[in-house]
Design a protein that fits this description.
The protein has 547 residues and is an alpha/beta fold. The chain has 3 domains: 4-170, Rossmann fold, CATH 3.40.50.970; 187-346, TPP-binding domain (Rossmann fold); 351-544, Rossmann fold (3-Layer(aba) Sandwich). The chain has 20 helices and 20 strands. The chain has helices at residues 6-16, 31-38, 51-65, 77-91, 118-122, 138-150, 187-199, 214-227, 258-266, 321-327, 338-349, 362-372, 387-393, 413-423, 435-441, 445-450, 466-475, 490-496, 507-518, 541-544, and strands spanning 4-5, 21-24, 44-47, 69-73, 96-102, 128-131, 156-162, 169-170, 203-207, 231-233, 248-251, 269-273, 296-301, 315-318, 378-381, 402-403, 429-434, 455-461, 500-504, 523-529. Strands 3-2-4-5-7-6 form a 6-stranded parallel beta sheet, sandwiched between helices. It has a 6-stranded parallel beta sheet with strand order 11-10-9-12-13-14, sandwiched between helices. A 6-stranded parallel beta sheet has the order 16-15-17-18-20-19, with helices on both faces. α6 (138-150) links the parallel β6 (128-131) and β7. α1 (6-16) crosses α2 (31-38), α3 (51-65) crosses α14 and α12 packs parallel to α19. The protein is globular and about 65 Å long. It starts with a strand and ends with a helix. The model has no long low-confidence stretch (mean pLDDT 96).
Length: 547
């Protein structure tokens, strides 16, 4: 052992855990860490422009790597700004670790400058929140943070770092790299599943959640194709399997295919592999109720605390996706025709039809993108009705080709795309953002440009908070209040950041502009102007008003 500062010990132990990238907005509370990173070439330091962007990038990076995305922010304002990413990581089951520079130990509990009790603040939304008061224990805390973030249901960990602790010079024993524990299937449970599937006449699988690797996706898709069981994706988890799987039935969530909804209601057995069956996937716990009368529910999930938490579960299987997808091949049954029928329904639903009288029709734009971009393109979006066109019409290629917050957080698309472009320089990356969504983290275009990201950004501008306007028109038709926006020239703004950019306001103009954008290196942005009257891919404001 050698004597090192706490900052040096922390940097060394992050390297030992395989960390190669940190997202940050710097703060004086963790200068000792920044100093250590100056001499740590193994870690790429990505300097962002707001802590919300920092946390979203770490969320996305954790999803892409299956190891915790790492974020560093300062106390008080930095931590509160970053809390949105911790909440998303929790609801989206994304492994991440947020390190928060903190007040010195001797000033704690005096409401010192920017002081917050971070253990109390983050406890409801993190898997674990703690404070490191002894620099000699940094290796222990870091190793535990990685273990907690990756095991069971992945999620966020928050560690507070007193600034004076980071300056302490001590001896510490570094910990070796942590790997998530294997979670094989119980043979008796798999036997019970085989018996249930053998008796089922109308089984449907619903897949999603965390932990879907390429192997898991391919293994499960092959078994589902062999058995003919329709496979639906949970909300914003459409990349759990490649959508060209011959039994893929489409996605649940907001605005699903009515035929898929009917198929779920009519199912006598639901094989739920990975997702929690949250509010969005189940349409407010109505499509699949917590007691689901008349349906057998089999729930496969890596976290025992999730099994039986909300839903009456007829068979609970605690296993990770890779283990289950491999073991399920031992289960055979007479093939069903329902899978091919469900896939045909999805094909028809996901093929855009021109809408008369619409100057900018996003459906054909999505189809044109699908023709021109590579199959493994990573699509990143935040929250908003604009995303519904891609949820409906884009064909995802399997893990990981969709980065979208199931927590419904706005401002996620640009930071997530920046993280994806830096992580996968060999793949095309697209950020989708509504005009409201973009303005919440559009400043991270500066980060993307500064770090040499290559990505396409589409800003869908309808001059309003579209999702809220939709609900407003349903509840209070014609009474517009608080949902209109006055926007900047997004193309000019992007050029000011150093991006290539154009504005597009008609469907016919989209394809030539897209081709010009794709020919450009670096960050390119298309400002797509749409009419808020076309409020979703399926309806208009006039129809919502009863017209």
């Amino acid at each position: 052992m050698t004597i090192r500062t706490g900052g040096r010990i922390l940097a060394d132990n992050l390297v030992a855990q395989g960390c190669d990238r940190i997202f940050t907005v710097p703060g004086e509370s963790f200068l000792a860490v920044l100093d250590a990173l100056h001499d740590t070439p193994a870690i790429d330091l990505v300097v962002c422009r707001q802590e919300g962007g920092v946390a979203f990038m770490a969320c996305a990076d954790g999803t892409l790597t299956k190891r915790p995305g790492i974020a560093f922010v300062t106390r008080g304002p930095g931590a509160t700004n970053a809390s949105i990413g911790v909440h998303v990581a929790r609801q989206d089951s994304q492994p991440m670790i947020l390190f928060v520079g903190d007040v010195a130990r001797e000033t704690r509990d005096r409401e010192a400058f920017q002081e917050i009790n971070f253990e109390a603040m983050f406890a409801p939304i993190a898997k674990w929140a703690a404070r490191i008061d002894d620099a000699r224990r940094i290796p222990e805390y870091v190793a535990r943070a990685y273990s907690v973030a990756m095991s069971g249901r992945p999620g966020p960990v928050v560690l507070a770092l007193p600034e004076d602790m980071l300056l302490d010079e001590v001896e510490a024993i570094d910990r070796p790299r942590i790997e998530p524990p294997a979670q094989p299937c119980d043979p008796e449970a798999m036997g019970a599943l085989s018996a249930l599937l053998d008796r089922a006449e109308r089984p449907v699988a619903i897949i999603g959640g965390a932990g879907w690797s390429r192997d898991a996706a391919q293994d499960f898709a092959a078994w589902a194709e062999k058995t003919g069981i329709p496979v639906a994706a949970a909300f914003r988890r459409q990349d759990a399997v490649a959508n060209d799987c011959p039994v893929y039935a489409g996605n649940l969530g907001y605005g699903p295919n009515p035929k898929l909804v009917e198929r779920i209601r009519d199912a006598d057995l639901l094989l739920v592999v990975g997702p929690r069956l949250g509010e969005a996937t189940t349409d407010g716990y109505t499509l699949i109720t917590p007691d689901h009368p008349g349906q057998v529910l089999v729930h496969v999930h890596p976290d025992p605390a999730e099994l039986g938490m909300t839903y009456r579960t007829d068979l609970a299987i605690c296993a990770d996706m890779t283990e289950f997808a491999a073991d399920v091949h031992a289960i055979e049954r007479e093939p069903l025709a329902a899978g091919a029928e469900a896939h045909a329904d999805w094909r028809a639903w996901s093929t855009p039809q021109p809408r008369d009288g619409v100057a900018m029709d996003l459906g054909p734009c999505v189809a044109a993108m699908h023709e021109r971009l590579s199959a493994d393109t990573i699509i990143c979006n935040g929250a908003g009705n604009y995303s519904g066109w891609w949820h409906r019409y884009w064909h995802y290629a399997g893990p990981v080709s969709q980065l979208a917050p199931t927590a419904g957080a706005m401002g996620y698309g640009v930071p997530a795309a920046t993280a994806a472009a830096l992580r996968h320089k060999d793949r095309q990356v697209v950020a989708l953002a509504g005009d409201g969504c973009f303005m919440m983290n559009g400043q991270e275009l500066a980060t993307a440009v500064a770090h040499g990201a290559d990505m396409l950004v589409l800003v869908i501008d309808n001059g309003g908070y579209g999702t809220i306007r939709m609900h407003q028109e349903r509840e209070f038709p014609g009474r517009i209040s608080g949902t209109q926006l006055a926007n900047p020239d997004f193309a000019a703004l992007a050029r000011a950041y150093g991006c290539w950019a154009e504005a597009v306001d008609t469907t016919d103009a989209f394809v030539p502009a897209l081709d010009r954008a794709l020919a450009q290196p670096g960050v390119k942005l298309l400002h797509i102007k749409t009419d808020i009257e076309v409020i979703t891919a399926a309806t208009t404001i006039a129809r919502l008003r009863g017209g």
